[in-house]
Amino acid sequence: MSSTFEKKLLEKIGESWEDATPGLCLQAYSKGRKVADLEIGKTYPYYDLASLTKILFTTTALMVLKDEKRFRLSDPVSRWVPWFPETHPARIKDLLTHSAGLTWWFPFYKTLEPKTAKVKTPEEAWDIFQVQLKKKILSDFDKNGFNFPPEKSVYSDLDYFLLGIALESISGTTLYTNWANLRDRLELDGLDFHRGNKPIHGKREYAPTEKDSWRGRTLQGEVHDENTYALKGVAPHAGLFGPIEDVSGYGLMLRSAMRGQGASIFPSHETVRLFTKRSIPRARGDWGLGFVMPSKGSSTAGPNFSMKSVGHTGFTGTSLWYDPDRDLLVTILSNRVVCVIQ
Fold it and tell me: What is the CATH number of the domain that holds 51?
């Protein structure tokens, strides 16, 4: 493909990308029609999708269960996470909007990995991890009380750890089985976790992320997120790998559902619209339910997406955004962390 749009885009980008990443894949769809499909610099078939996992997997799996009336967004977290304090007012919707008052991140991997290195499956690692997660969260509550509702939403992996536990409780099956069922349902065959931290394809097929001092090697086909690595590759917040075609394919299904044109394999129009509308006051944060919305003045979507846009980004250099006003979908996969550490 060598469209006029692509040529203008390349002229505008110029060489500015070289300071940000060794290379990138970009796809853009206007009104559902592909208008750009570019590979710039050094690219690879598969990328570590990082926090795009949050929407590609956990958020969408919960939308499916919402359609099936298996839970309510207003359910207390304690209903689906048995050890979560019943006196804490947080609801499932508060986890999705990062408004439960939890800390943003914690290096569980430092004490978790020595324990999970001895187990064979992500399921065993997840069981061990939940003991540490419970201890951390309850300790924070004891020290600081319940910071609820917080003045500002705090983007937190811990929110998604709890959503992962809730997903298992609601569905009655494991995290990975939930993912496998969703992947097959949406026909996103190129996306998957690396169970046991073992790449599905040859190592050279994956974009390297960084020379990791903790693991003592360059990460290529190995999940960048340390906590996910300690969980043996499967987590509700990170860990998916895949090609740009499948990420854009997900975005196109999201687009169709938002427009009321979705196929039956994707969550319903009503549920998708609920999850993709602004769900907390702008003064508190820019969130739908699991989906990021643009911030005024500074947004990971850039300055040209409307305030009704939804998407997400990943630390490794991944991004998916859809603007319903312009009917524009843009997917970018890169390995920008390599440049950050050099």
Answer: 3.40.710.10
Answer whether 47's CB lies under 8 Å from 40's CB.
Answer: no
pTM value is: 0.96
Q: List, in sequence order, every beta strand (DSSP E) within the chain.
A: 23-30, 33-41, 47-48, 192-193, 208-212, 217-220, 240-242, 310-314, 318-323, 328-334
Domain assignment present for 36: no
Residue 37 lies in a domain: no
Tokens of 206: 């994956």
3-state secondary structure of 145: coil
Report if residue 99 sits inside a domain.
Answer: yes
Give per-residue burial for 205-232: e unless 16+ CB within 10 Å, then b: ebbbbbebeeeeeebbbbbbbbbbbbbb
pLDDT bucket at 263, cuts 50 / 70 / 90: confident
> Considering the domain boundaries, does residue 181 fall inside one?
yes
What's the confidence (pLDDT) of residue 13? 75
Sign of the dihedral defined by the CA atoms of residues 38, 43, 45, 49, in that order: negative
The β-bridge partners of 26 are 38, 332
CA distances from 104 to 35, 118, 156, 163 (A): 37, 28, 4, 14
Give how many domains the chain has, as a whole number: 1
**Host domain of residue 201:** 4-29+42-341
